[in-house]
Amino acid sequence: MVVLGIILVLVGWLASISILTTIGVVLVIVGLVLNFVPIGGTRRRIF
User: Fold this and answer.
1) C-alpha distances in angstroms, 17 versus 13, 30, 37?
2) Which keywords does this Swiss-Prot/TrEMBL entry list (predicted)?
């Protein structure tokens, strides 16, 4: 999800499409939060 967000940010920035940049930033933030917050009671962290 983080990689997809970074790709959308780059494409949106290069093509000057602000909605792609916004969606990309949201995906990066959500991906990082889901990566560091344990879900379902597991203590594993996958980096």
Assistant:
1) 7, 21, 31
2) Membrane, Transmembrane, Transmembrane helix
Residue-level pLDDT at 12: 92
Please give the C-alpha separations between residue 43 and each of 2, 6, 12, in angstroms, as whole numbers. 21, 27, 36
Residue type (1 letter), 46: I
Q: DSSP letter at 37?
A: S
Task: In whole angstroms, give the CA distance from residue 21 to residue 23.
Answer: 6
Contact between 12 and 24 under an 8 Å Cβ cutoff? The reply is yes
First to last CA, the chain: 12
Residues 6+ apart with CB under 8 A from 47: 35
